[in-house]
Design goal:
The protein has about 110 residues and is mainly alpha-helical. It has 2 domains: about 50 residues, no CATH class; about 50 residues, no CATH class. About 55% of the residues lie in helices and about 10% in strands. It contains 6 helices and 2 strands; from the N terminus they run H-E-H-H-E-H-H-H. The chain has a two-stranded parallel ribbon. Helix 4 packs across helix 5 and helix 4 crosses helix 6. It is globular, with a radius of gyration of 17 Å. The two termini are about 30 Å apart.
């Protein structure tokens, strides 16, 4: 987790807000020490079970809709179909904004 967080901080400027669950890798001593040392890193915890607050749920709902009734002939076709669906969602700002809006989380992106 610390390696991921340090890499994230190298690529993003300003304050970084990360929403995640309370899993053991997210709450360990090393992570807590990193948060103490880096004041621009803010870790916000989701409640135990709250899919309605998770923007990813909207993304997966869109992806499932795109993949419905598909019949891949193997893992490579499945991988390609999933990658294409996620790329399509990724490049549609209106869909991404709708996922955030639906979650009820505050919107802090331009």
């Amino acid at each position: 987790m610390c390696a991921f967080l340090r890499d994230l901080l190298r690529h993003l400027r300003g304050h970084v807000f990360l929403l995640w669950d309370g899993g053991r890798p997210h709450t360990g001593r090393l992570v807590k020490e990193l948060v103490r040392r880096v004041p621009r890193l803010h870790l916000l915890r989701f409640p135990g079970y709250a899919p309605e607050l998770n923007c990813d749920e909207g993304v997966w709902k869109l992806a499932k809709g795109m993949l419905a009734n598909g019949c891949p002939k193997g893992r490579s076709e499945l991988d390609a179909s999933l990658t294409n669906a996620l790329q399509s969602i990724r490049h549609n700002r209106e869909n991404l904004r709708a996922c955030i809006d639906h979650s009820g989380l505050p919107y802090f992106l331009p």
